[in-house]
Structures are given as C-alpha cells and as structure tokens.
Amino acid sequence: MLSKKELLNLIETRQIKTELSSGFFIPPKVIPFSQNRSSHTEFELVPFQLIKKKAGDLDYYIPKTGNSCWIAPLPCANIIIKKKLQLKNPKVGLLEGIVKK
Fold it and tell me: What is the domain range of residue 76?
C-alpha cells in the first residue's frame, strides 16, 4: 500500500493524474501483457506481440503467447487457421464477410 507521501509524489511527477474537481485518480496508461506460466506459482509478464499469418488469400494475426487478441488489428484468431479463406468482397473488407475457397 502506498503512503500519502508516495502517492503525492506520483501525482506531482504526473505518473498519476487527478481530476481535481472530482477527487478521482486517473491511472497511467498500461500496455497489454500476456502471462507466460513457467510454474504453477510463478508468472512472467511479457509485452503483447502478434504473428502475421495467411489462410488462403486472407491475412490474419495470432498472439505470440496466450489466447487473447487484445488490441490486435482484425482479423485475429487464437489458433492457426488451416482452411483457405478469402474476403467475400476485398474492396469492402471484413464488413462483407469471409468465405472458404
């Protein structure tokens, strides 16, 4: 738990922002992390990374670790897609849908 002095220091150094009229604290921005588990008691945080893959004509992303796409561009999947896919209408993009070849 932070002491009052430590909290004031974080606010003064702008690591934590406040909305003075409301009394609320705004936490600093965070970068999404994936958890790598090396044992049942130990967690290591690693920066979120993506791998670009192809399924037929369709480019998509998968997370390097974990199963969540977080802030990945679409389309994103948590598994490797083995089917051949393509955009239904490449001019429109994902809004028209994806079809099997």
Answer: 50-100
